[in-house]
């Protein structure tokens, strides 16, 4: 890892004051960075090599799969990452966020940490993204994290090769005293109950178990058989029988960990495997808006009151959040007005105004973008969204024609970019604005959204609830299981587990 860090520091060294930003667009990514174009191109190539490594490791076929490209922002330092996420005192080295218009990742070009690097975070989180994008089935949450930990240490120490499975040195502190959680409890599903009590496996536990089952010759094929059994509907305790005596497996994993000798693979890669890379220099408005583009959700989503939070405390938080929101909107609008001939400022302003449900201002911003680029797909979507949002307050005689006009606009936007999930998502939502259930076109639109951005929880829950309403319980079960088994606890994952329990009870399975 220290050799890898040194290579990264050389690769991305650039003047802190560099003001020229570039974008490298590949088959699966859009990467934005200031400084040297050659370094950016090499990083883009390596991201595509890592994508190929995941394809080989999972054995999935991507032929014919639609792609919503992940936007990766390379910022100067870990300090910038913390500032952009609003967590200056944290130990965050980089982050990933799924969004309705496609996921983003933010990582530093340079770091002072020789082990827990921004690249490691990016590789870990992109592994989650990849699994949901191309293998969206139910995995035990420890395996989801264990696989991501195995993949995250990928390195390029020999020309023409990428490594898979190097030791997770950044988890050593969790494993110094050995396994902290029993192997049997991870495999038979007991961890799901323990998690509710505030106890459970560590990432180190997940890594060493997954690593052993992946690379052990004596256990070859058992992990795949176990995962297949779970996705055929078997209980985790029944699926775990493929391992035989779990006590023996516990001892094997403990010996494996104490031996501190972890095998890995060097996977050959061809230089042309990265595919075409399109380079461009960002416009002045795009460059000025980079921080604001990353931060939009943090500044436009207002807080909700906690169950045990005092009303006066919440009121203060809410007031501060509204002041922050207004300041953010003013900053974006200032940039848009400073570069009135560029669409970037008006588009981000439309995004932000629609996010805070200021539909009149959203329409104005979208119209300014359309005056510059009449066929701009994102501007069409935001104008249609504003029309749908404003229609809620209209009487049906005015509401329905306005929503139908918005639907026409969304259809045009979808034709311009079939892989943009936003147009399809608002096409589905438009039916609710008219007080109707979605017709076949709306239902297909929502299914396509989940296919395009399976990492986003909201559309997945919407689709599951639509399927349940229409009696498609088996399909709803398939849609719910990846979220219900998510290793990241959230209100969405809890709702998914509740719905899944109801569906499985109705089907008589579980």
User: Number of domains in the coordinates?
Assistant: 4
List how many beta strands DSSP finds: 8
Q: For the largest beta sheet, what order do the strands appear in spatially? A: 4-5-3-2-1-8
In angstroms, what is the radius of gyration? 24 Å
Give the percentage of residues in beta strands: 5-15%
The CATH architecture name of the largest domain reads 3-Layer(aba) Sandwich
What distance separates the N and C termini? 42 Å
Largest sheet: 6 strands, mixed
| CATH-defined topology of the largest domain | Glutaredoxin
Structural class: alpha/beta
Query: Can you tell me the residue ranges where pLDDT is under 50 for at least 5 consecutive residues?
Result: 1-18
Tally of separate helices: 24
Mean pLDDT: 91
Percentage of residues assigned to helices: 55-70%
Question: Any overview of this molecule?
Answer:
This protein is of the alpha/beta class. The chain has 4 domains: 1-136, Glutaredoxin, CATH 3.40.30; 138-268, no CATH class; 308-442, Serine Threonine Protein Phosphatase 5, Tetratricopeptide repeat; 454-510, no CATH class. Helices cover 59% and strands 7% of the residues. Strand 2, helix 2 (37-58) and strand 3 form a beta-alpha-beta unit. Helix 14 (290-300) packs antiparallel against helix 15 and helix 18 (377-391) runs antiparallel to helix 19 (396-416). The chain is globular and about 70 Å long. Mean pLDDT is 91; it is low at 1-18.
Note the topology:
Blueprint: H1 2-12, E1 21-25, E2 29-34, H2 37-58, E3 70-75, H3 78-85, E4 95-97, E5 104-108, H4 118-134, H5 141-152, E6 161-164, H6 172-175, H7 183-188, H8 190-196, H9 203-215, H10 222-231, H11 236-239, H12 246-259, E7 265-268, E8 278-281, H13 284-288, H14 290-300, H15 311-338, H16 343-355, H17 359-372, H18 377-391, H19 396-416, H20 421-433, H21 440-452, H22 457-469, H23 473-484, H24 491-507
Parallel strand pairs: 2-3, 3-5
Antiparallel strand pairs: 1-2, 1-8, 4-5, 6-7
